[in-house]
Amino acid sequence: MRLLIMGPQGVGKGTQAALLAEHYGIPAISTGDIFRANIKGKTELGLKVIAYTDKGELVPDELTNSIVKDRLAQDDTKNGWILDGYPRNAAQVEALDAMLEELGTPLDAVVALDADHDVLMARIAKRAEEQGRTDDTPDAIAKRLATYAKETAPLLDTYKSRGQLVAIDGVGEIDAIQKNIVEALDAR
Ligand code: AMP
C-alpha cells in the first residue's frame, strides 16, 4: 500500500499516519520529522533547514525532494509506505511522480483529512503546550496555515482528478477516524 496523507496542520495527519503504518505494516515517512531529527542532531541538513522550519516556511524543493528520494530507496519501503507532509506544492507533486515512475511503484491513494479552522487552532495550541515545537509560535502557525491554503490545498484537486482522493472528516475520535480511513481504502 502506497499512500499520501494530506491536510492542514493540526488535523491529525501524524496520528493517523502512525496508525495506518501499523495497520498495513508499512513505514510512515514524515518530512517534518526527518527535518526535526536533523535539526536536533545538528547535521548539515538540519543547519540548512532550521531557518525555514522555524519561520513556518517551506524548505526549498531540491532539499526536500532529495530526502524523500533517498528515503523511498530504503529497504523497508518494499511493501509500501505512507508519506506525511509531502508533497506540499505542485513542484513536489511533479518530483514525486518522477520518483515513483522511476521506481515503478505507483501511488494507491491520497487520504485527505479536514477540519474547521477553530478545531485546528485548538489542536495546534494543545500540541504547542505538550510538545513545545519551536515552530508552534503564533507567527509560524499562521504562516504554515496560509502556505497550506495557497500551495498545498490545491493539490487535492490534482489527486481528485486522478481518481486517487479519499476525503475523510478529521473531527471525532481517533479510532473512529482511523476506521473510516481503512474502510474507505479497503473499499477501493
Ligand atoms: P510538518 O511537521 O509537516 O508540519 O513540517 C514542519 C516543517 O518542516 C514545515 O513547516 C516546513 O518548514 C518543513 N517541511 C516539512 N515537509 C515539507 C515539505 N514537503 N516541503 C517543504 N518543507 C517541508
From TrEMBL:
<keyword id="KW-0067">ATP-binding</keyword>
<feature type="binding site">
    <location>
        <begin position="10"/>
        <end position="15"/>
    </location>
    <ligand>
        <name>ATP</name>
    </ligand>
</feature>
<dbReference type="GO" id="GO:0044209">
    <property type="term" value="P:AMP salvage"/>
</dbReference>
<comment type="pathway">
    <text>Purine metabolism; AMP biosynthesis via salvage pathway; AMP from ADP: step 1/1.</text>
</comment>
<comment type="subunit">
    <text>Monomer.</text>
</comment>
<feature type="binding site">
    <location>
        <position position="31"/>
    </location>
    <ligand>
        <name>AMP</name>
    </ligand>
</feature>
<keyword id="KW-0963">Cytoplasm</keyword>
<comment type="function">
    <text>Catalyzes the reversible transfer of the terminal phosphate group between ATP and AMP. Plays an important role in cellular energy homeostasis and in adenine nucleotide metabolism.</text>
</comment>
<feature type="binding site">
    <location>
        <begin position="57"/>
        <end position="59"/>
    </location>
    <ligand>
        <name>AMP</name>
    </ligand>
</feature>
<feature type="binding site">
    <location>
        <position position="127"/>
    </location>
    <ligand>
        <name>ATP</name>
    </ligand>
</feature>
<dbReference type="InterPro" id="IPR000850">
    <property type="entry name" value="Adenylat/UMP-CMP_kin"/>
</dbReference>
<keyword id="KW-0808">Transferase</keyword>
<feature type="binding site">
    <location>
        <begin position="85"/>
        <end position="88"/>
    </location>
    <ligand>
        <name>AMP</name>
    </ligand>
</feature>
<keyword id="KW-0418">Kinase</keyword>
<dbReference type="GO" id="GO:0005524">
    <property type="term" value="F:ATP binding"/>
</dbReference>
<feature type="binding site">
    <location>
        <position position="36"/>
    </location>
    <ligand>
        <name>AMP</name>
    </ligand>
</feature>
<feature type="region of interest" description="NMP">
    <location>
        <begin position="30"/>
        <end position="59"/>
    </location>
</feature>
<dbReference type="GO" id="GO:0005737">
    <property type="term" value="C:cytoplasm"/>
</dbReference>
<feature type="binding site">
    <location>
        <position position="144"/>
    </location>
    <ligand>
        <name>AMP</name>
    </ligand>
</feature>
<comment type="similarity">
    <text>Belongs to the adenylate kinase family.</text>
</comment>
<dbReference type="InterPro" id="IPR027417">
    <property type="entry name" value="P-loop_NTPase"/>
</dbReference>
<dbReference type="GO" id="GO:0004017">
    <property type="term" value="F:AMP kinase activity"/>
</dbReference>
<protein>
    <recommendedName>
        <fullName>Adenylate kinase</fullName>
        <ecNumber>2.7.4.3</ecNumber>
    </recommendedName>
</protein>
<feature type="binding site">
    <location>
        <position position="133"/>
    </location>
    <ligand>
        <name>AMP</name>
    </ligand>
</feature>
<keyword id="KW-0547">Nucleotide-binding</keyword>
<feature type="binding site">
    <location>
        <position position="172"/>
    </location>
    <ligand>
        <name>ATP</name>
    </ligand>
</feature>
<dbReference type="InterPro" id="IPR033690">
    <property type="entry name" value="Adenylat_kinase_CS"/>
</dbReference>
<dbReference type="Pfam" id="PF00406">
    <property type="entry name" value="ADK"/>
</dbReference>
<feature type="binding site">
    <location>
        <position position="92"/>
    </location>
    <ligand>
        <name>AMP</name>
    </ligand>
</feature>
<keyword id="KW-0545">Nucleotide biosynthesis</keyword>
